[in-house]
């Protein structure tokens, strides 16, 4: 689970949703708003899973102890009001920024 990583092109749906939202705002199109919201509602669980996967990978990479993992996941659950948007943003940016490659980069290696 912690190795799940979505491809970068998944963000094109978000771009289409934002364009549809802006078109609905510009031309008072209710259909454009509905299209944008449906796309976003479809991708929110995907980004949430990606964000949770990223946190799981980070805890594994940092070799966190079991007590630390329990505390982190308990904080994520108890502070859902704050952690949910952070997990969504983390999950949405992960395909674009590819945190795993950045954090696994070895400074001694030549690229």
Write a structural description.
By secondary structure, the chain is mainly alpha-helical. The protein is 77% helix and 0% strand. It is built from 5 helices and no strands. α1 (11-27) runs antiparallel to α2, α2 (30-61) packs across α4 (80-97) and α3 packs across α4. The relative contact order is 0.15.
Helicity, as a percent range: over 70%
Average pLDDT taken over every residue: 85
Task: Write down the overall geometry.
Answer: elongated
Number of helices: 5
Task: Indicate the radius of gyration in whole angstroms.
Answer: 17 Å
Q: State the end-to-end distance.
A: 28 Å
- Strand/helix succession: HHHHH
Strand-residue fraction?
under 5%
Stretches where pLDDT is under 50 for at least 5 consecutive residues are none
Number of strands: 0
Quaternary status: single chain
Largest sheet: none
Q: What structural category arises from helix and sheet content?
A: mainly alpha
